[in-house]
Write a structure and sequence with these properties.
Blueprint lengths: L7 H11 L19 H7 L1 E4 L7 H8 L5 E3 L16 H15 L7 E4 L1 E3 L2 E2 L13 H4 L4 H18 L3 E2 L26 H17 L3 E7 L26 H8 L5 E4 L17 H11 L6 E3 L5 H4 L4 H11 L4 E3 L9 H14 L5 H18 L1
Parallel strand pairs: 1-2, 1-10, 2-3, 3-6, 6-7, 7-8, 8-9
Antiparallel strand pairs: 4-5
Length: 377
Amino acid sequence: MPDLFCRPFLRRLCASLLGASFLFCSVDGATAKTSSSIEQMAGSMLMVGFRGLTPPPSIRSAIESGRLGAVILFDRDLRQSGPRNIESPSQLRALTSSLQKAASAQHLPLLIAVDQEGGKVRRLKESRGFQPQPSAEIMGAMPADEVRALGMRAGQEMAALGINVDLAPVVDVRRTPSSPGLGDIGRLFGSEPAVVSRQALAFAEGLSATGIIPALKHFPGLGSADKDSHLDLPDVTARWHEDELEPYTEAFRRGWPGMVLAAHVYHRGLDPENPSSLSKRVIEGLLRGDMGWQGVVISDDLQMGAVAKGRSLKDILRLAIEAGNDILLLGNNLSYDERLHEKAFQMLMELEQSGEISHERFERSWRRIEALKRRLR
């Protein structure tokens, strides 16, 4: 199979990016100028979940010292009954306020993320006092102006609750009838790249207008997957098409203001050895090199079965950093360890001390993350 990096589509894409007109406010990691310790740099790369309607002491301590730069919140705990982090609007506001207070010593805000796509994938549910939000499948058939207004409404609610990152929108292009974990539960805007681009970016514009950082997912495309990556690694080699990159092309052309989330998906034409989320060829080569994205890349949950099977956590973190990920997402919900944030941080320190990951590599990610956080100030 020909090397996809050399295809005419990507050459045209690069030319279009050079002449782009920016409709969003772009993020450039090179603008950051201040200094930080290696501990703070490594901590800024970790986004970890935790249990509790209030912050556990160990989480507060890690945030205060800069050993944890981001958290992800869930409404439901997959391993025990009852709410996990989100019970009501007033409780959530108190939780996020407490988290940000802990971060104040670092002089940059904490990234507080949720998956608020709409439909079945939303952490802020009506049953707990939050506003309704339709699925991407429903929004895909609506006028773009209405979708933008829904994004703004969702962003206003999240901002008022102290959330500043929405791991949305999904820009996967539907390619399979079943599309497990995506299309089968209404997470896809459509099966045409132009429709997905228009509708998903309209939603993102609404989020961004309220100060919420959005994330395009799942790069380079999960719409052709026939397995749920929460459980197994999908192989899309025979079904993936380069037009699944078009929503990213359009977003970058318009000065994408958020993050890009890397998928756990295997395509031997892109990388014959590693899944996309752990692939330097995909992230540094295709996404950053060919497509020109220089902002923050966040991994999908590194505890998902697609990458966790057969690998130690330390190896996963090393591969994810070598591939080019800036934020390492550990949901801590598929399996739970109350000390996960501490263990992951220690592993990053060991990787730096052993020389497996250089100081300069940590600094590159920190510069991008810092530039993103400064927008929130």
